[in-house]
Specification:
- With 302 residues, the chain is of the alpha+beta class.
- The chain folds into three domains: 96 residues, no CATH class; 67 residues; 128 residues, Histidine kinase-like ATPase, C-terminal domain (Heat Shock Protein 90, 2-Layer Sandwich), CATH 3.30.565.
- 62% of the residues lie in helices and 12% in strands.
- It contains seven helices and five strands; from the N terminus they run H-H-H-H-H-E-H-E-E-H-E-E.
- The chain has a five-stranded mixed beta sheet with strand order 1-2-3-5-4, covered by helices on one side.
């Protein structure tokens, strides 16, 4: 974080003091510059041959432009460079935050797998052992053991699902389409009345771990949003490979939304998708209209 603030506060031309000028001071400085330039032009024209009013106006404007443009550039350039630097710092920070979040997901997923998963399996086996011991002592006790066993099985399944959602280990050993399809299958219980289709086009290539996870996260976020908010009956996921690009497109026939009313707080997931795509040098396009569904496309160069 220190690097960002240091780079932003230091201007290569030694003009960082300009960034501290208040709007009032800047207005006074520019007014003085304009007045001085106009006065200089008037004095200069008085010592020149007599011209027509049209030629005089052209000469006046040309000299003013020649005098004021360098002054404007001198004052504006530090702000322009500071804005570019701030934009670059924000992009770098977003990239680091995305990487940090991915690392944290991976750590939590491993913790769930190494600790909770083993404990749940051991507990389930213990319940099965208890169930075998009490099965002859009464139907009620056996029924309770059966219910506990079913709850533990459901909890074990949920923990595995959360672990896979946080960090899908299949990305290291399977194709991207297979991993996305597995996520779609896991959402079947929540996607009631919704059909989610996956279509893969082109010849799949080996993607970097970072790019593969990014595309998976995009699919995960958009599908989750469609299930929760779209009221769609059909969601189509297209994974397209070409010689130079890989792209994912997700289209639903749901209720859509008005992009003009979409803010950072109300559309945080889509903002995160856009920033994730941008951090990897990709391009994204999101289109939606009320009553006409939503479509998203993200493309990356190979």
């Amino acid at each position: 974080m220190k690097n960002f603030s240091d780079r932003t506060s230091i201007n290569a031309d030694g003009q960082s003091w300009l960034l501290n000028l208040s709007p009032a001071v800047m207005a006074i400085v520019m007014s003085i510059a304009i007045f001085a330039a106009e006065l200089f032009v008037m004095i200069l024209i008085d010592h020149m041959p007599t011209f027509s009013r049209y030629v005089e106006a052209v000469v006046d404007a040309s000299i003013l432009i020649a005098l004021l443009v360098p002054i404007y550039i001198f004052f504006y350039r530090p702000f322009w460079r500071a804005r570019l630097q701030a934009q670059e710092d924000i992009e770098q920070l977003n990239k680091r935050l995305t990487e940090a979040a991915e690392d944290e997901r991976r750590r939590i997923a491993l913790d769930l797998h190494e600790h909770c998963d083993q404990t749940l399996v051991a507990l389930q086996r213990t319940i099965e052992l208890v169930q075998s011991k009490v099965i002859d002592s009464g139907e009620e006790a056996a029924a309770l053991c059966q219910e506990v066993d079913e709850l533990l099985g459901r909890l074990n399944k949920d923990v595995r699902s959360v672990s896979a959602a946080l960090h899908p280990p299949q990305l290291e050993g399977q194709g991207l389409a297979q991993v996305i399809q597995q996520y779609i299958n896991q959402q079947a219980d929540q996607a009631v009345g919704m059909s989610i289709e996956l279509v893969e086009k082109g010849h799949p290539v080996n993607l970097s771990q970072k790019l593969g996870i990014a595309i998976y996260r995009i699919a995960q976020e958009v599908i989750r949003n469609a299930i929760k908010h779209s009221d769609a009956q059909l969601v189509r996921v297209h994974l397209d490979y070409t010689d130079r690009n890989v792209a994912i497109s997700i289209v639903d026939n749901g209720k859509g939304f008005d992009p003009k009313k979409c803010t950072t707080s109300t559309c945080l997931g889509l903002v995160g998708v856009r920033e994730r795509v941008k951090s990897l040098g990709g391009s994204s396009l999101i289109h939606s209209e009320p009553g006409k569904g939503t479509s998203l496309r993200a493309s990356f160069k190979l």
